Amino acid sequence: MKKLAILIIYLSTSLVLQAQEQLSIEDAIAAGLENNLSIRISRKNTEIGANNYDRSIGALLPVVSVSAGKNFTNTNVEQQFVGDAEPRVINGAKSNTLDISPRLNWTVFNGLGMFATRDRLKEQELLGEDDLRVVIENNIASISNAYYRVVLENERLRVFQDALQLSQDRVDLAKTRYDLGKSSKLDYLQAQVDYNTDKSNLIAQQELIYNVKVDLNRLLGSELETEYTIEPDFAMDTTLVLSPLLASSYINNPGIIRAQRARNITFIQQKEIRAERFPTIDLNMGYGYNDRNSDAGFLISNTSRGFNYGVTASVNIFNGFDRKRREQNNRIQMESDELAIADLKQQLEADIRKTYVNYENSIVLKNLEELNFAVTQENYDIALERYKLGNGNAIELREAQLNLVQAEIRKLTSQYAVKVAEIELNRLAGYNLE
User: Fold this and answer.
1) Does 94 lie in the same domain as 13?
2) Alpha-carbon torsion 248, 249, 254, 259, what sign?
């Protein structure tokens, strides 16, 4: 009955999986790049940088402004004019003034600082793109790791399912031998205990698969309970060579590119500070309209209008050594940027070398575990035959079964380790964005 139940569960699972969507590693990465929330946030930050640069052209254009005002007064006036015997008294004398002044101001020279600022904004836009590259590179690696973790856990589930089937076969065999009086009830009960242990392992593995799929769906930006099928293939590349990895990392690693961009921005900031040594020349032009009306005074109405224009030059002679301080800080920052690039390259080389050793050792272990699995498979077959013939006992068979399960799990784990090391090497070398 238990054997039938297992078969029904297995067939039901197979039918569900066939109805699910097939997900390749290429599809997973494409979906992640499109929907991953951290990538979408980084894209928005890149748009801000692009907008800052596009709109910076305004710093090269004139500034046009208009000021307008209308003022009213209501006063009591007592005026004494020459020749008048009595002062003139006006209560509630009203006056109003209308002033309209459009103005244009154009900075035509400021030591070329405006052009340096625009260059800096362009580099900051590219720095935002570098940040996006870093996020994309890291997410490709994270998605790949999560994808192949699902492959690993699915394969481990298959191993546990096979182990459960072997335990079921052993329960059936032990019961038959007990019914025929060829073995004690103890063997039959022990077989049931081992079966329940394997079933418990299977349930725990199913929970683990659910968790790793949720993690993958989060990276893909999908609904967390989305179901899909994945090919049970690690697609390992065992041909990576150290020297090309190192050479590529210095050119293509997004972290190195970003650090070099930050150094360029510091250099341009130096130009902006030095531009302050030169005078600033402004062209200005305006138009003035003034209309004043009053109930008191010599002029009842006064209207003036006309253009005004000129050139203004200003230079900062002394500002408390602030510019000198900023120039010194900028030089220190440039030295710091150079040291940061050197440190990053050294750290990158160290990471690649360590990961590459891990990669080579993982390949060796993979080959060893594949050979070991073949040996344990043969050992289990022999133990099973001995048990069927009555020449072996249940303990030997169970031990052979456990060795078989553990050997296959180690084989799968070693294959996954090779893939993880390969993914990390590709990330460090910048291969993912070539």
Assistant:
1) no
2) negative
